[in-house]
Amino acid sequence: MTEMDPKVEKATRQFCGKYRALREQIGKAIVGHDEIVDGVLVCLFVGGHALLEGVPGLGKTYLIRTLSEALSLRFNRVQFTPDLMPADIIGTNIVMDDPATGQRAFRFQHGPLFAQMVLADEINRATPKTQSALLEAMQEHAVTVSGTRYPLEEPFFVMATQNPIEQEGTYPLPEAQLDRFFYKLVVSYSSREELATIIDRTTSGYKPQIEPVMNRDEIVGAQRLVHRVILAPHVKDYIVRMTMATHPEGPFATEMTRRYVRWGSSPRGAQALTLAAKVHALLDARFNVGFEDVRKAALPVLRHRILLNFEGEAENLTTDAIIEDLLQHTPTVADKVA
């Protein structure tokens, strides 16, 4: 393997150092949930968005607020409710009086979406119309009101939270809208030791002092660095085959996929696997993607991009079980070209 370019090596070391510093600052406030924190940071550094699922009270809101402080980014929180309208998050044109001329004119009033970090809290409590307004902004990094396009400031990162779909009063996100999220992260309950630490911190007057670690330009630079990480043809082929293995009628589908899956991952899944694997490679001080980097990203990338059929739901299977199966049965080197 050729030696790494000195400039690239320096940039990689700096990225790893900043990442560790971020984790340290977040750890002052957030107890445990290491996989969730890492997943959110991966989404940030690839320019994607994160969807967190878990019951209320697990610290999802606290996490992104802490992250915004450590990144020196403007933060807004939107509480999604059934009566929330698209204009409530995007903004609207209002009539303004000009004191000098006495004339009236329309002026666009920015909504809370105009921030660099946006928390869409309990997104599945809003109606599909409002959900779609947010997801359009996530995709385009801009909003259009009355024919005028308003770009959103970069970096633009959305972390949405949702309650488990079994709870009442929710509107589950359709699969096509779920696909817009880079990662879906499942937030579990804290362990015995973690819960004891949480009690100590939250009932004793403890107030963590979060110090800024990165600014806007450094984050954008890190995102560009991630895109430059080398992806060898044989690793790219592994990503392609893994994505196609989620398609029940595809040539690489596993027996479990054929039996229990209705729809598999879109091309966004392959793109997300690639970018997430590049971040994992950088964090291992490498500038080339390995198979294990791809495998680390498989669950959060693919779990919301697979739709089970009736038989799969009747068997109480999860998409995580499907992904674990395809990881086990998809070889790193293809036996043949389909």
As laid out across the biggest beta sheet, the strand order is 2-5-8-1-9
Helix content: 40-55%
Determine and state the CATH class of the largest domain: Alpha Beta
Unreliable stretches, pLDDT < 50, 5 or more residues? none
Report the major sheet.
Answer: 5 strands, parallel
Q: How many beta-strand runs?
A: 11
* Overall geometric form: globular
Structural class by secondary-structure content: alpha/beta
Report on the structure:
- This protein has 338 residues and is of the alpha/beta class.
- It folds into two domains: 1-82 and 116-228, P-loop containing nucleotide triphosphate hydrolases (Rossmann fold), CATH 3.40.50; 230-338, Magnesium chelatase subunit I, C-Terminal domain (Helicase, Ruva Protein, domain 3, Orthogonal Bundle), CATH 1.10.8.
- The chain contains 14 helices and eleven strands.
- The protein has helices spanning 6-27, 34-46, 60-71, 86-90, 128-140, 175-178, 192-202, 216-228, 233-244, 255-260, 267-283, 291-302, 310-314, 319-329, and strands at 50-53, 75-79, 91-97, 104-110, 117-121, 142-145, 148-151, 157-162, 183-186, 261-263, 307-308.
- The strands form four sheets. A five-stranded parallel beta sheet has the order 2-5-8-1-9. It has a two-stranded antiparallel sheet with strand order 3-4.
- Strand 6 (142-145) and strand 7 form a beta hairpin.
- Helix 12 (291-302) runs antiparallel to helix 14 (319-329).
- The longest helix has 22 residues, at 6-27.
- The radius of gyration is 22 Å and the shape is globular.
- The model has no long low-confidence stretch (mean pLDDT 87).
